[in-house]
Design brief:
Family: Belongs to the bacterial histone-like protein family.
Mean pLDDT: 88
Order of helices and strands: HHHEEEEEH
InterPro entries: Hist_DNA-bd (IPR000119), IHF-like_DNA-bd_dom_sf (IPR010992)
Number of helices: 4
CATH superfamily: IHF-like DNA-binding proteins
Strand content: 15-25%
CATH architecture: Irregular
Low-confidence stretches: none
Number of strands: 5
Protein name: DNA-binding protein HU-beta
GO molecular function: DNA binding; structural constituent of chromatin
Oligomer: single chain
Strand order of the largest sheet: 1-2-5
GO cellular component, one term: cytosol
């Protein structure tokens, strides 16, 4: 079972926290929770490192995480009408793969 399938099958309407993700992956992959936890920690660390360098992380069948630069912009407070300059910053964006979109769409149709 792939991680994508595992995530989509796990209660679509609930919010999955880290502990629940570890439990579900350990059950479906028949591995100890400690190994799954270490694997997820290492994955998150490696992804953060690559994204901080400006690289993208492509997880085939799941999606692409990218680091993008948002230019500075002017924001207006609607209450006070005061204009504020928002400085440029790096943000992380996620684009889901077509297979992930399809699996989520199919799971919503079967409710």
């Amino acid at each position: 079972m792939t991680i994508t399938t595992c995530l989509v099958k796990f209660q679509i309407h609930s919010k999955m926290n880290n502990k629940e993700l570890i439990t579900e992956l350990a059950r479906s992959l028949d591995l100890p929770k400690e190994k799954i936890s270490a694997l997820l920690d290492a994955t998150a660390k490696a992804m953060a490192e690559e994204l901080s360098k400006g690289n993208s992380v492509n997880m085939q069948g799941f999606g692409v995480f990218e680091s993008r630069r948002k230019d500075e912009r002017v924001s207006v407070n609607p209450r006070t009408k005061i204009r504020t300059l928002i400085p440029p910053k790096q943000v992380v964006v996620f684009k889901p793969s077509n297979s992930l979109k399809d699996k989520v769409k199919q799971s919503n149709l079967h409710e």
